[in-house]
Design brief:
single chain; about 70 residues; alpha+beta; 1 helix; about 30% helix
Length: about 70
């Protein structure tokens, strides 16, 4: 499942979890993992869609994609 939203996704390897972690900084607590980079990306796309669907159901505002985020 692909989402039509264009949120920034950060993917990194976690030694502690022994998995790739994919996080969506703009969506609070939106993250997924996978045994490969691609699996983490596919899983987080599903989680993004579920996050958006849940936000709509409970009347929570949905942040707009911001493009590349800057880190210090």
């Amino acid at each position: 499942m692909k989402t039509d939203q264009r949120y920034e996704i950060i993917i990194y390897w976690s030694e502690a979890d022994e998995a790739f972690i994919a996080e969506v900084p703009v969506l609070a607590c939106c993250a997924a993992d996978g045994i490969s980079y691609l699996e983490a990306l596919q899983n987080v796309e599903i989680v993004i869609q579920e996050w958006i669907e849940t936000a709509k159901e409970i009347g929570k505002s949905i942040p707009k994609p911001k493009g590349k985020l800057m880190f210090a």
